[in-house]
Structures are given as structure tokens and as C-alpha cells.
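Worked Example 4.2. Consider the chain below.
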Amino acid sequence: MISIIGAGNMGMAIASGIKTKVFFSDKFKRISDNVTAAKRSNVIILAVKPQDMGGVLKEIKPYVKNKLIISIAAGVPVLFIEKILSKARVVRVMPNMPAMVGKGISAVSRGRFAKAGDLKITSDIFRNLGEVVEVKEKMMDAVTAVSGSGPAYYFLFTHLLAKAAHAQGLEKGLALKLARAVFVGAAEVASRNKNLSMEEFVKKVASRGGTTEAALRAFKQEKLEAVIKKAVKSAARRSKQLYKSTMRETICRK
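Applying the procedure from the previous section yields the following C-alpha cells:
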């Protein structure tokens, strides 16, 4: 059996994709308790907030020997979990919001004591929610900044495009419908033509002297690329800071 500690949006999304029975624990929703969850399963998924991780690990420590621990907490390194749980078999995962509809992408990274079979079990679980890629753990902050936070960038850009369209005279509902359809359709075209780079797709849309070229020129003049780089760097930096916050919370609870 698989236990999920934390019944938030991602915890529920994981449960919905798993074909086997799942045991839940969540202190805020009063669903069972962490100790029972740890006792009942051989695979324990930690879907709690980073600041709550230290407390949860100490609570379940006596009951996780020889069990697979999967953590989806942003900014919490495997080493932190391994230290508290005494060399536990840990796999770290960074899923993202589209996992809720089976269109997510999850990055997985194996800890020092996890076996190849543990990585396979983890990958099989998250393939129910979309794609799975394996990365070195040192890349997890970058992954978090791109795919973990990325859906918010899409939602924001869609909103801003619709807002700009409305400013040009389009009715709000139609403006939003157009903006949504553009991104969904473009993503589908890209997924069906993976041999082409994003730059090549841009060139296919932007004819010389045309409307798209004018828009792209404006993006360049306003240094859109620099803004995006700064945003991703800020998100990655925050991912690193979350670990420091987790450490402070753990020390304060001692």
C-alpha cells in the first residue's frame, strides 16, 4: 500500500493517478494520522510543506525502516531527510500543477541509499500523472523554478495577452478565449513536431515585415528575455532559501 502524508492539491492529484489503494494522512483535514500512515505502507509520499517537513520526519522516524520515502517538498534536499530518518531510502520528486489532469512533468532524483528499483517505483507512480525525467539533485532548484513554478508563468502571460487584446477593443470574454486557444494550440503543434526547435517555430509564424515581427521587436526592445531569466533565477534562489527556513523550523522544534 502507498501512504500520502499531506492531502493538499498535489497529494490529491497523486492519489487520483495511482491505480492502487492509497492511505491518506493530513492534520488540517483530520484524515487519519502520520504514524498510522507510516505503519501501514511500504511506500510513503511526503506531500507536506517544507516548513512542516522536520516535524513530520521526526514523528514517523520509528516506523519507516526499510521503506521507500518519496518527497515532493520544494527546496528540501534528500540529505536533510536521510539525516533525520537515519539513512532512509529517499527519492525526491518535483511534480507540477498539470499533474492534476494527467499532463504534468515530474523530475525525479535518487538519494544515496535508494535503490534502482526505488527509482523505478517512483517513476511508475508519477507516470500516471504525465511525463517523468531523471535529474541530478543539484538541478532540482532550477527544475522547481522552471516546471514547478512554470504553470503560473503561463497563466500570467495568458492573462496579460488577453488584457492587451481587450485594450485593442476586443470583448473580455473573447480576448481570453483567443489567448487560451493560442497557447493550447501552439503547445500541441510543438508536441507533434519535436524535431523543430522553438526558434524555428518562431520563424514559421514571423514573416518578414509582418505583424508578428513587429511584436517580437517590441519584446526585444523591452528586454523580455532578461526579465524571464531574472524571474527564473529568483524562483531558483527562493527554492534554496526554503531549505534554510526548513532548518530553522526543525531547530526551533527541538
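The mean pLDDT is 93. The chain has two domains: 2-135, 150-222. Compare this with Example 4.1 before moving on.
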